Amino acid sequence: MSHQHKKQFGQNFLNNQAVVDRIVKAIAPRADDHLVEIGPGEAALTGPLLDRVERLDIIEIDRDLIPRLTQAFGQHPAFHLHSADALRFDYAGLVKNDAPSPSLRVVGNLPYNISSPLLFHLMTFESAIIDMHFMLQKEVVERICACPGSKTFGRLSVMMQYACETEHLFDVGPDNFTPPPKVNSAIVRLKPRRTRTLNAEDPALLSKVVKQAFAQKRKTLRNNLKPLINAAALSELGIDPSMRAEQLDVEAFVRISNRLAVSGQDGAKQPNTQNANQTNENQ
User: Strands 55-60 and 104-109, how do they pair?
Assistant: First the structure.
């Protein structure tokens, strides 16, 4: 009996063995690896990965697939199945007490409808993760790997490139899936950064700055960042306030964030004292 694909889970399953082989080759699993596969679906990747590693933890939300996966792989010593939502899963809980840090290698054909939230969730566990290889919508991969100045460079680009080394590996057409999606897909490699030229003093503040900067892409930094920092402060950081957010590199966003973190205040434009006094006099 075939599996009924469910739109709410964004299920588009790989059906081309040549593509599977190419993905496995890109991952290059080693015998002592601890892999985590998100959303195995009909297990196109699961079998080849199980035969190559010491441990494979599977995260699957669709309960209808659990018996199939258990029946197919339940006797394999490397197979460990978790019926859970990948968006809420505690990946750090998979790390053994005696395991090196980081120790997890995460892979998966991610549902397109939750790909960005899932990536942000995974990055909260970056200290436990060696690398990640994902099938995503091609447009999302292009955004993740985009260069400053390009039309696709945005919030996702900045936050993922701050956290990871990113690499667009190869594209996968719709005809390689069942059912075929309406978009092209691509494989991306993400490696959490262990060292950076510039570290954000407050990662949550960095996220806030980036979100605000890209709030309205056609507006300049002077306008978008006005609630957080004034034009003079941007100029002091060597950043032209008349630029748009997509023209800045990742380190520029970190400089803005760190300026706000160190100052202990929002850095927004202070009220004009003379105008304030006039207003008080007129009240």
Answer: unpaired
For residues 103 and 128, the answer to whether their CB atoms sit within 8 Å is yes
Phi-psi region of 76 (alpha: psi -120 to 50; beta: other; left: phi over 0): beta
The Cα–Cα gap between 235 and 21 comes to 51
The number of domains in the chain is 2
Residues 119 and 259 reside in one and the same domain: no
Identify whether 269 is part of a domain.
no
State the Cα–Cα distance between residues 64 and 266, nearest whole angstrom. Answer: 50
pTM (global) more than 0.90: no
The range of the structural domain enclosing residue 243 comes to 203-263
- Examine residue 73 and state whether it is found in any structural domain, yes or no: yes
Question: Looking at residue 25, which CATH number applies to its domain?
Answer: 3.40.50.150
Do 111 and 133 form a contact (C-beta atoms < 8 A)? Answer: no
Same domain, 49 and 165: yes
Q: Strand pairing partners for 168?
A: 188
d(CA 274, CA 254) in angstroms, rounded, equals: 34
Q: Are residues 18 and 135 in the same domain?
A: yes
* Tokens at 247, concatenated: 């023209």
Q: Which of 145, 162, 192 is the last residue of a domain?
A: 192
User: Residue 164 contacts by C-beta under 8 Å, 6 or more apart in sequence?
Assistant: 123, 126, 132, 190, 191, 192, 193
Alpha carbons 17 and 23: distance in angstroms, whole number: 10
| pLDDT single digits (tens) 61-108 | 999 899 999 999 999 999 999 999 999 999 999 998 888 889 999 999
